[in-house]
Specification:
Helix 2 packs across helix 13 (231-237), helix 10 packs across helix 11 and helix 14 (253-266) crosses helix 24 (442-459). The chain is mostly helical and 467 residues long. The strands form four sheets. It has a two-stranded antiparallel ribbon with strand order 1-2. The chain has 24 helices and eight strands. 34% of the residues are buried. Bound molecules: calcium ion (2 copies). Residues 267, 269, 271, 273-274 line the site of one calcium ion (CA). Keywords: Calcium, Metal-binding. Residues 20-39 are annotated as: Disordered. The B regulatory subunit might modulate substrate selectivity and catalytic activity, and might also direct the localization of the catalytic enzyme to a particular subcellular compartment.
């Protein structure tokens, strides 16, 4: 831990000076934005839609609406595509032999009206990896063909990331993009030298992307999932926001740091896997052993394709665990814990299943001399809170409707948090807001608090001081 602490601490200090160097405001302790209401995301999404709109217009043309919408009868798509192709050709003209190398491919990417951080996937998809550069003629062909088959940003992104090979994105397809963010984003310059952390950061970001975007749990992000999620808007935001920690969705360095430190603490032999005894130590043995058994039973592993051993948890699986554990109102978290508690997999939590988990909580409370609530009384409280549609059993949609799922789940398997809830106004946790009045998610709040603690612990100093 000490070596990690030292390297990461150095990285943080470097980060601080890097942030100062680019004239960035200090964002540590500055509360991160909430995903939905941030107008910058709304803007990014709107920009994407604008592109999508004009690309879709030829469909009207094909079905005979051309004259109605475009009295002059001008085909819109070829005109716009020609404009883009001219712009791209002009961009290539600025390079010797019209050949653009990898590290300058952002220029071409922007000429194509794509978000900047599509640049390396685009470079690779256009065949740049072989020669180390892309030339004008082959790229213009490539782009014309791409636009002929992909009419909106989401489908173009999917095609670029998969190099046209698949209709869905696999986790490894994201590696070039996220690795490029590590290497070139101004908010991560401090991490450039610390190459040993690159892969950890990359895999953390990818795991977080799948946690939020891959709502089907398939391990493959479909075009529909890409369209519905906020990933494209967040990737666009990367070029507008120099402080990586202000991008709390997926890319925040501070969030990565918290997740990775938590894993490192548990993974004593540092083989990047933890077993049930390691996980039991999480958060001072807060979780019940019955729950931990369920996590390791395969109830919450995605796809299962690469699952070689059920008695250990990978780093990616830990990211899903921690995100679920610290924000139990996130839709993926509700599904995660529901899967764990639905012992017979019938799609309902029965009274028997609730009692099975509560029994261990009772034993643990008895053991430390805390006054307990009998199961029947606890059940009444929980049913009052959840109000299930079908009497006597709780469905996933019952829980998703309820605003207090964290209280529900913690009652059955997290003793520490359960006792916390008991002593707190149940609505208090939902009232935290950042400086700009946006409501914080449980995860954002947890990550910010833990980051402060970790930095104070490792550095032995107030994290504000190094600025
Ligand atoms: Ca291990
Ligand atoms: Ca069940």
């Amino acid at each position: 831990m000490r070596a990690l602490a030292r390297s990461l601490r150095d990285a943080i200090q470097l980060r601080a000076s890097a942030a100062a160097a680019v004239g960035e405001g200090h964002h540590r302790g500055h509360n991160p934005p909430d995903p939905d209401p941030d107008p910058r995301w709304a803007k990014a999404a709107a920009d994407g839609d604008a592109l999508q709109h004009f690309q879709l217009q030829p469909q009207h043309e094909e079905i005979g609406y051309t004259r109605f919408y475009y009295p002059q009868g001008k085909p819109i798509l070829p005109q716009h595509l020609d404009l883009v192709l001219k712009k791209v050709a002009a961009a290539f003209d600025n390079f010797p032999n019209q050949q653009v190398p990898r590290h300058q491919f952002g220029v071409i990417t922007k000429a194509c009206d794509c978000p900047l951080y599509w640049k390396i996937p685009l470079f690779i998809a256009a065949g740049g990896d072989k020669a180390g550069y892309v030339d004008a003629a082959s790229f213009l062909d490539y782009w014309r063909n791409l636009c002929a088959s992909c009419h909106n940003p989401a489908s173009r992104f999917l095609n670029i990331l998969t190099r046209g090979l698949r209709q869905h994105v696999l986790p490894e397809d994201f590696i070039p993009l996220v690795q490029d963010v590590v290497e070139t984003h101004p908010g991560l310059t401090f991490l450039k030298e610390a190459t040993e952390f690159h892969s950890r950061y990359v895999h953390t970001v990818i795991a977080r992307i799948y946690y939020c975007v891959n709502r089907s749990w398939s391990g493959r992000i479909s075009l529909a999932e890409l369209r519905r999620g906020n990933l494209l808007a967040i990737i666009k935001l990367l070029e507008e926001e120099d402080d990586i920690n202000a991008i709390t969705q997926y890319f925040s360095y501070e969030h990565f740091y918290v997740i990775y430190c938590k894993f490192w603490e548990l993974d004593r032999d540092h083989d990047l896997f933890i077993d049930r005894h390691d996980l039991a130590r999480h958060s001072d043995h807060a979780l019940s052993s019955r729950l931990i058994d369920r996590i390791f039973s395969g109830a919450v592993t995605r796809g299962g394709r690469h699952k070689l051993r059920e008695d250990r948890m990978s780093y990616t699986e830990f990211v899903w665990f921690l995100l679920s554990e610290e924000d139990k109102s996130h839709p993926t978290a509700v599904e995660y814990w529901f899967r764990c508690m639905d012992l017979d997999g019938d799609g309902f939590l029965s009274m028997y299943e609730l009692e099975y988990f509560y029994e261990e909580q009772l034993q643990r409370m008895d053991a430390i001399g805390i006054e307990t609530l009998p199961f029947e009384d606890c059940l009444c409280q929980m049913l009052d809170m959840i109000r299930p549609e079908v009497t006597g059993k709780i469905s996933l949609s019952d829980l998703k409707r309820c605003k207090m799922t964290s209280i529900f789940f913690d009652t059955f398997f997290n003793l520490e948090k359960y006792l916390d809830h008991e002593q707190r106004d149940p609505f208090a946790s939902q009232r935290d807001h950042d400086n700009e009045g946006r409501e914080l998610s449980d995860w954002d709040r947890y990550a910010a608090e833990e980051y402060e603690l970790l930095v104070a612990e490792e550095g032995g100093q107030d994290p504000q001081e190094d600025l």
